[in-house]
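At your convenience, could you comment on the folded chain following this short note?
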Amino acid sequence: MRTPSSHPVPAALVALLAVAYLILMSPTARGQGQPPVEVSAQADRTGVRPGDQFVIAVIFDHAEGWHIHTNSPVVPPTWRGFIAIPTEIEVAESSQYTVGPIQWPPVHEMPLDLGGTGKPVKYGVFEGQAVAYVPVTVKPGASGPVTVSLEVRYQACNDRTCVFPETATLTIEQPMLKPGETTTPTAAPELFAAFDIASLAAAAPKVATDNGRVIHFKEFGLDWKISTQGLGLAVLVVLSLLGGFVLNFTPCVLPVIPLKIMGLAQHAGNPRRALFMGAVMSVGVVAFWLAIGVLMVTLTQFKAISQLFQIPAFTIGVGVFILVMAVGMFGLFSVRLPQFVYFLDPKSDTVSGGFLFGVMTAVLATPCTAPFMGTASAWAVKQPPSLTLAVFASIGVGMALPYVVLAAYPKLLSRVPRSGPGSDAVKQVLGLVMVAVAVFFLGTGLDPLARLPVDEPIRWFWWVVFAFTVLAAAWMIVSVVRFSRSTPLRGVVTVFAACLVAGGLLVTIRFTERSPIHWKGYTPERFDAALAEGKVVVIDFTAEWCLNCKTLENTVLHQPEIVALLNGPGVAALKVDLTGKNPAGQAKLRELNWVGIPLLAVFGPGRSAPVTYDWYTPDMVLAAVEGARPKTASAEGP
């Protein structure tokens, strides 16, 4: 008999997200004695006026035998499974100044064997005294002292191991000069000898003049702006609610909705019980999204929901979690199984079953986060913790809203079958569909463990997904013949089952066939070489678990005119596969000031800045590529 003290619901949620926490942090042995790296900052002068430019040197002093990863580490192919934490410098937003592109230290190559292969290979690092330069421009209307806050993230390694990633917060205070006062140069001018002074003139501000009070996003080919104060903040919350609500209609969530409706229908005659069980499930949904918000607030490396699925252990864990719940749909929980399994029975009329069902429903939605929801969450991670959690709570409430409404008005469920062989058959069919969903997560979790990011993905698991879809359709037909004498109902179910199989076959073929575009896996070297040749570079940021990415690729990029364009002369098509860890690809995504996928970026000599789209049409891609060609080539045609 279970007692209240044995209730495992919070532990189940914590355990699921703890995997992501541990791997995101990637801790190893902690260094002892003298710190392996000391970080400090110094400005090239003291005292500024409005409109002035000055430079901050971020100094990394390494102990002998230690180094840190570069800002864009390239892990050798033989170091399978090794995760390099890139060095990052993030400058706090302010209405007093703007920040230009960071000038990073020279990269030193040294022989290392951090992959445990027994054969050292050359690996680029920062070592010795490495100095990064941050150019700062004081805004013309600035007044009072200028305070620049920098957050520096890095991971120190020696020739054997890497220590826990560190975060250092540095502050530079610049007094505002009065009339007649002059600036004081730094006491160590040699520290800035390597700084490229020409970069000050080309410094592109990275900090918006709205001081973070306006959220910018590009959807459906249009640029949108929403103020996050007053009415604008209310609009953002509504968008978060809407985004959460839309998640109920993603392909992975739809199969489980009938299960919950049938569960609530069992209590249609008991309004209090129906409301209670609906509330329990809703708490599970909201708890998951709040947990995501907590991860984003507490982990500096965690900036987007999609990062969870770049951790194979998390994706595999989700697949196992769904598979165990699917087992209960076949009535196998009636046999003797380990005690903890019974808490994952979605048919059980218990608080634990309802809560975990809510958690599972939320987890299923994450690979297909809606565009507006993704924008709101990406903005929220840069805000105070209270506002971040409020946005993610709104996403959870929006997703849970339909179940709260059904629970509050049980009469809406009066026609839903509550029990009997027909009801059991529906659950068994949905159980088979859930197995197919579990195989999807297991396959996308195992895929990056068996290959490198630049290699072709392993997609055979889609045929296993299709096999279970066929089984679900077949059992649907068998069940309706066994339990219903209604000819119209039998006909409708048979047609639906046939459409399910046909649709599943079409999706499987499209998702497993080789792309007609001659993609090459992204590497910084390939990117730089293509630009040096004067080519237009099109980068597709994607992942095997990203169904939105797959949809855009198949419906837009695989159009004949787009295929011909991307395979044509003067264009280099590169793919950043973020199915698993891809440090070089993730660094490029950060460089574009983006956090989630899908994303299409177009670079070229005809544009001073890349064009980026997270939703696009064939015409938008054609225009972006043609606009990025060299002006002379654009006039003459490709």
Notes: The mean pLDDT is 77. The two ends are 74 Å apart (CA to CA). The longest helix spans residues 271-298. The longest strand covers residues 53-62.
